[in-house]
Amino acid sequence: MPTKSVTLDEVDEGLVHALQVDGRASFRLVGEVLGVSENTVARRYRRLRTAGLLRVAGTLDGAALGYSAWTIRLQCLPDAAAPIAGALAARPDTSYVYLLSGGTEISCSVRTRSAEESEALLLRTLPRTARITAVSAHLLLAGYALPDDWAGPARLTEDQVARLTPHHDATEPVTPGPADQVLLDRLAADGRTTHAELAAATGWSEPTVRRRLSGLRRSGLLRFLVDVPPHVLGFHAEARLWISAQPSKLDEVASALATHPEASLVALTTGPTNLLAAVNCRDSADLARYLTRRIGSLDAIRTLETAPVIRTLKRAGTVLPIESASAQYRPVTGVQR
């Protein structure tokens, strides 16, 4: 969906960074940290939220719940890529969906609860779509840098970050169950939904909502991601990189990539390449410098394939369903024929 043209100033960028530290930080605290009023922070947030440029999304840690993470590449007929990408973005199990260079390739991230779900998606659902000409799936084995850790142009000092870092109530960590689904669905849509609104949606009391949220966050299962288009932060050249590195140097290369401020994702994968990276650069010239100087300086890299992102259809996907892993697979048929 196109976003309105809004220029971010220092306060806006400080707000974005603050929410990346704690997506539910109060406007009062953010204002104190930034040196502006609570009303100013609230007004800036509403402006960016209304313009479609900033969203806080609550999400569960799929790895902790036993989900498998996949990155999938699909080659499509020229007139099919956009509608297929849109259908993939509508699926509840996708989190990031991109159209890549040439307009015939799609890259998306998928989480599956079981081998049966993986098989249903990768061996039956996607290959059944005639306008998809090729599919390759890569299991993510380890993450070195993750999208929710990427701060873009970080604006806050270490002291400011420390003030914003949440210290949760002394509640016991909890495991999410079916009763939490309404709560988590609301947080997936808007991670800053108030305790009163969550209480009304769940039928719980506000103290119960507060305890439940605190317990889920203390357990490490519930996190809040900031969904902001990179171009809003001044990064106009996004790309996905598929890298093959010398096996004995794989950890070294991945760790080095994870330190690059341009990298929002670095992951070890299966497949003909063994690393996936997502990078955000200022422009095409900056991307060229990144590839020739930063990537080019890593001698253990054997091959590199670069695919610029031409359209993003989904970021920070919806919350994971929390039924047991043995629950029936419920396909979304938008990519089937």
Automatic annotation (TrEMBL):
PROSITE patterns: HTH_ASNC_2 (PS50956). Keywords: DNA-binding, Transcription, Transcription regulation. SUPFAM superfamilies: Dimeric alpha+beta barrel, Winged helix' DNA-binding domain. Residues 8-68 form the HTH asnC-type domain. It comes from the Bacteria. It holds the Pfam family HTH_AsnC-type. This is AsnC family transcriptional regulator. It comes from Cryptosporangium japonicum.
